[in-house]
Write a structure and sequence with these properties.
Layout: H1 2-8, E1 18-19, E2 24-30, E3 48-55, H2 57-62, E4 70-74, H3 80-85, H4 88-92, E5 94-99, H5 115-124, H6 134-142, E6 148-153, H7 158-174, E7 179-184, H8 189-194
Parallel strand pairs: 1-3, 4-5, 6-7
Antiparallel strand pairs: 2-3
């Protein structure tokens, strides 16, 4: 899919690599299809075990001519924090980072980070906005050791678009003393009803 997308958009770069915080070789559990393949070999899972070469995102960035600002999308089945730790220079050039993470599996003994560990890591590097899916909301707010300001918004909401740059400036000024989150009410309707969100922006 990505290869076809890049072919249709001149200037796009399609690049395949296994990434982590250390370079070398790692064992990988490959499952049929994409979903579920993982570096977390301690997890009980079926699949073919393979040794694969691994690079850091910083190495990949240094060896390729990617335009700024970078858009980074991670979905690495619990390996996100490892990938991020090998990406300090990459994150400094990123305009946006999208991290697709599990909101319920926190198996630290098996090498999987908690959601809050990833949020704290990104907070420390100046990333202040998070689009929170409904299952993660209570954990994100309830486990935070600092105040959390939540912006409830919708894609069709004109005033939300007007407010966004103002909230971004406030977020950068107050971070890391205050954590910020965004919730799209169309994607989290039950949460919005439970919290009595009757209008946006709220």
């Amino acid at each position: 899919v990505m290869q076809r997308f890049c072919e249709a958009h001149p200037g796009s770069i399609y690049f395949v690599a296994a990434a982590s915080d250390l370079e070398g070789e790692m064992e990988f559990i490959a499952r049929e299809g994409v979903t579920g393949s993982s570096f977390h070999t301690k997890l009980k899972a079926d699949g073919e075990r393979r040794k694969v070469p691994v690079l850091t995102l910083d190495r990949i960035l240094a060896e390729n001519d990617f335009p700024d600002p970078l858009l980074i999308k991670l979905d690495t089945e619990g390996h996100e924090l490892h990938v991020l730790r090998g990406a300090d220079q990459t994150l400094a050039r990123a305009g946006m980072v999208i991290i697709e993470i599990s909101t319920w599996m926190e198996e630290n003994s098996l090498g999987r980070p908690s959601m809050m560990e990833i949020f704290n890591f990104m907070d420390q590097r100046g990333f202040v906005f998070y689009e929170i899916a409904e299952p993660a909301f209570q954990r994100f707010v309830g486990q935070s050791d600092i105040p959390v300001l939540v912006d409830f918004w919708a894609t069709w909401c004109g005033p939300c678009r007007t407010l966004t740059p103002i909230v971004e400036r406030v977020a950068r000024r107050l971070s890391p003393k205050v954590r910020f989150a965004k919730v799209n009410i169309d994607d989290a309707q039950a949460l919005a009803q439970r919290l009595n969100i009757q209008a946006v922006p709220t």
